[in-house]
Amino acid sequence: MADRIPVLDVGPLLSGVPGAREGLARAVADTCVDTGFLVITNHGIPQALINDCFAAASDFFDLPEQRKLDLKVGDLNIGYLPYGAQIIRTSKINNNTKPNLSESFYIVTDKAPDDPEIVAGNPLYGLNRWPVEMPSFKARTLAYFEAMRPLGRAMISLVAASLGLPADYFDADFREPTITLRLIRYPSHDGAEENQFGFAPHIDTSFLTLLAQSALPGLEVLTKEGDWIRPPAIPGTFVVNTGEMLSRYSNDRYKPTPHRVINASRSLRHAIPFFYGPSLDAIIQPVATCVSESDPARYEPLLYADHRRKLNLTNFDHRRKAAEQAA
User: Fold this and answer.
1) Distances from the Cα of 273 to the Cα of 74, 180, 289, 302, angstroms
2) Which of 220, 259, 294, 312 counts the highest number of beta carbons within 10 A?
3) In angstroms, rounded to a whole number, what is the distance separating the alpha carbons of residues 269 and 58?
4) Which domains are assigned to the chain?
């Protein structure tokens, strides 16, 4: 079943080989209407940067609990999210009633205190929260973050081509992409309760996710036939999957595939997913190549900022409770 998730060499695309985009676009279209997952090789991200990011994640999660809690997320997902703080209530494939058996640290596009959005108090922008006793943590994670940006842009252009659009079609909507690097640590699944997962069955809510392969397995993908399969475990590659916003742009041609994480390795497992989404001011609506008289637009235009606001409330108990108390 693993062959349901193809392995694609994106090196020729990144180096500008004539015809490379068209060939890859066909393969992307095929897998996006099937599992919505693929694995990419020759992606151009130095392995040293990937290793450093994994190491930074491990170092952070090894800090004393109180020190991590000092950096706890607030109104936005920036900083530390402890065990028990997230229940995936938005899932449409499983009644998730238990919190994820994992802890996380969120890093967003790094802004200075005098950035206009910060000065203006825009509630959808915030400053990253860094552990001051670990100066190398910021350097290692931001180096990885910045290296991933051009790969994200390249994959967006490839998706555009797979939909029969010009390669630069999405450039305007991704002028200032909404990016989150989420560091995650999963304990062994041995301690899980019934209906509890390292990460509960869900779909990603951005446009694309790029996931560096972890040293230990855990990610599982749900096929249309109802089977849970794992992507090919090839060291040094990235697993790429579609998200909810791509589903809206493609008028459900590319439906995001549910997936989950179960860490059965009996060891601590780390993951560093890189979520790549549109600008907050982008209007998400089905593209012309995915709409016809027989298949009219299934979605009304959606301001991406509104989508983000809703997500910030739904799946995180500390914000739900605050909203309920304010009502």
Assistant:
1) 21, 8, 30, 25
2) 259
3) 9
4) 2-326 (2.60.120.330)
